[in-house]
Design brief:
The chain is of the alpha/beta class. It is built from twelve helices and ten strands. It has two domains: 195 residues, 2-enoyl-CoA Hydratase, Chain A, domain 1 (Alpha-Beta Complex); 48 residues, Orthogonal Bundle (Lyase 2-enoyl-coa Hydratase, Chain  A, domain 2), CATH 1.10.12.10. It has a six-stranded mixed beta sheet, with helices on both faces. A four-stranded mixed beta sheet has the order 4-6-8-9. The two termini are 32 Å apart. It binds 4-(N,N-dimethylamino)cinnamoyl-COA.
């Protein structure tokens, strides 16, 4: 891949968007590579957590590629929006947990791809925003939907209508990110969190992701029924037997085996 740097550290995968000449802006080529990468990560049983970041120190992702978008017709704009939305939905629905390590500018499509991850942490240099209305367009990769679900419609509308960027501390205050780290500590912190998650029983972790994400779309009675179902399914796993057995025998559990 040319536009994504990929590495595995144990059971944690790290993907860094890499377009050094455009602050990692998302063009069609990046979206195609991301699509392919997500299929590969989803098919790899050994990967338990995916960290998404931007290469370099200045940007996570500075948005969709404005050069590529500037000449789009209505039909091409819709097709570009669909391509992005399909990839972002694939990221959001990846069965394993995902962490966005936001290491700089996360604007437009950059803020949106971060919001398609389960957890966001950022560097103290990070800047977030949805600048689209200032460019004559709407957020096109799910920003109107995910931002309002994450920070509430009032704050999402303020950010989107005003097209004003916010800094890391404001992003933390409104709940857009979970934590802020000095730039050099961001990736170690992301890795530490990923490894902590990866040590827990993978089937249970995936079931929690499904229960939270699908449950949020359901009325409460259906959502708790979904939780009951997923809870029950854990009792068919070897990892549940090992985890509870170890507790009762007052010993540390063996590494979970994803079975
Ligand atoms: N696209 C293309 N190139 C970009 C870019 C972007 N989003 N952001 C930066 N670059 C390029 C710059 O053009 C520059 O290239 P050269 O001139 O060196 O060739 C290089 O990256 C370095 O950027 P700067 O020189 O501007 O760096 P500064 O430090 O001065 O400024 C900045 C950093 C992040 C404040 C500035 O680059 C900036 O404002 N960038 C644009 C940020 C932005 O507005 N992003 C949101 C894009 S809109 C839709 C689908 C998708 C979307 C909407 C609708 N549908 C189909 C409905 C999504 C929209 C967006 O994401």
């Amino acid at each position: 891949m040319t536009h994504i740097l990929f590495e595995k550290k144990g059971s944690v995968a790290i993907a860094a968007i890499h377009r050094p000449n455009a602050l990692n802006a998302l063009n069609s080529a990046v979206l195609d590579e991301l699509d392919e990468l997500l299929d590969a990560v989803g098919a790899d049983d050994a990967i338990r957590v995916l960290i998404l970041t931007g290469s370099g120190e200045k940007a996570f992702v500075a948005g969709a590629d404005i050069g590529e978008m500037s000449t789009l017709t209505k039909a091409e704009g819709e097709a570009f929006g669909k391509k992005g939305n399909d990839v972002f939905l694939k990221l959001e629905r990846l069965p394993i947990p995902t962490i966005a390590a936001v290491n700089g500018y996360a604007l437009g499509g950059g803020c949106e791809i971060g919001m398609a991850c389960d957890i966001r942490i950022c560097a103290d240099t990070a800047v977030f925003g949805q600048p689209e209305t200032g460019l004559g367009i709407t957020p096109g990769f799910g920003g109107t939907q995910r931002l309002s679900r994450l920070v509430g419609p009032g704050m999402a509308k303020q950010m989107i209508y005003s097209a004003k960027n916010i800094k890391a501390d404001e992003a933390l205050r409104i709940g857009l990110v979970n934590a802020i780290y000095p730039q050099e500590e961001l990736m170690p912190a992301a890795l530490k969190l990923a490894e902590t998650i990866a040590r827990n029983a993978p089937i249970a972790v995936r079931a929690c992701k499904e229960a939270i994400d699908r449950g949020l779309e359901l009325p409460m009675d259906e959502a708790v029924a979904l939780e009951e179902n997923l809870f029950g399914s854990c009792f068919e796993t070897e990892d549940q037997k090992e985890g509870m057995g170890a507790f009762l025998e007052k010993r540390r559990h063996e590494p979970y085996r994803n079975r």
